[in-house]
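Annual report, structural modelling task.

Input specification for the flavin-adenine dinucleotide complex:
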Amino acid sequence: MIDAVATIGAGQAAAVAVRTMRRAGFDGRIEMIGDEPDRPYQRPPLSKEYLASGDDEGLFLLPERWCEENDVRLRLGQPAVRISAADAGVELADGTLVAADAVLIATGGRPRRLPVAAGARICYLRTIADSDRLRSHLRPGARLIVVGGGFIGSEVAATAHGLGCQVTVVEALAAPLLPVLGPVVGAACARLHQAHGVDLRLAESVAEVSESAAGVVVTTGSGARIEGDVLVAGIGCQPNVEVAARSGLAVGNGVIVDEHCRTSIPNVLAAGDIANHWHPLFGERMRVEHFDNASKQAAAAARSLLGRGGPYADPHWFWSDQYDVNLQYAGHANGADELVVRGSLDDLDFCAFYLRDGLLRAAFGVDRGAEVMAAKELIAGQVRVPAGVLADEDADLAELAEAALLDESLEEELA
Ligand SMILES: Cc1cc2nc3c(=O)[nH]c(=O)nc-3n(C[C@H](O)[C@H](O)[C@H](O)COP(=O)(O)OP(=O)(O)OC[C@H]3O[C@@H](n4cnc5c(N)ncnc54)[C@H](O)[C@@H]3O)c2cc1C
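The model returned the following structure:
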């Protein structure tokens, strides 16, 4: 029987876990421990609408009133140091012990840093403060250098372009998003930037960064010199494992959890960007850094804490908004051996399907949300769909998924 729960981290995953516990009728004590000064908030707008405008409408996750009515105590600006099993609680940096008989670790990650000194013109993007700082540089005509053509780098490039900045993206690989999307679809994403006049330097490393009062200069591995007013690095995220490691939990590219979000210590769970979880559908461990996973996995962890959970086997889904298009991805393409494209890569109007041994593993679409969502159902149901059907614009994937799931439930009923 659990009487008191503490979350370490007060971001997306923690907020959803807490909401889920209260909705499920948990009436014990709940405390959220967050090292940031802000109330729980969502990060996706920080590279999109919020970066562009500074408008925080819809940014925050748990209104003050909700916390009061639901008796959720927020301890903000207070880093947790370790979980103490002996003292049955969480120790904070100021020495306070927050009593808890169950703990959710939801500490997320922090941006990987370039091996250069922090300077006024060198930015990273994870927090509200980071987004505010970057925005202050993004005036029309400002020259922005984006290091890294992943999702965050690509989104910032698009937002800055929309604000009238001159944008150069330096990407070490041969295409943006190459590890996730592969070379063919990655090349289509390169065209998306190029079509908007963004200077995309592919297969270019950053050899040196120098900053002065006048600007910032990047020297690339091939010797090119790129001058800018501000630089933002989006070169990946490092999981915040320190509290878990100090508490004796198994860590390794995040906190190791099973399909019920359980760590190596009883009554300590982890969810969100920090959780290196066993995925029963894909049969491998993974750590993903997406909003939808942070929410769904946190809800699964909350149910698991209350003893009501099934395994967390969502195929994963995320979106990205860049320029005037919406990109969506579902599944996990690792080991894919076949790519099937519906629509036109050249026209940036397509849905790409990634198959392994003939089975759909992942889908990525540009302004094709409905197809990606249908593909997600097909992936979850492990429904085999011939390549010709996937490529056929007239084949209704949602209908296919519905029919397959109906067959499955009929089979279960008849079994
Ligand atoms: C700029 C940006 C744009 C994004 N856009 C998208 C998008 O378009 N689509 C999408 O699917 N995903 C997007 N994401 C990813 C998504 O926001 C994350 O997956 C999600 O925030 C993860 O939630 P989390 O709770 O695991 O971690 P977080 O939201 O990072 O929360 C973790 C919290 O724990 C705190 N913490 C860490 N250590 C301690 C400690 N010792 N004590 C107390 N607190 C601690 C952290 O400071 C942080 O506040 C974006 C992320 C960023 C940064």
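Residues 167 and 198 are 5 Å apart (CA to CA).
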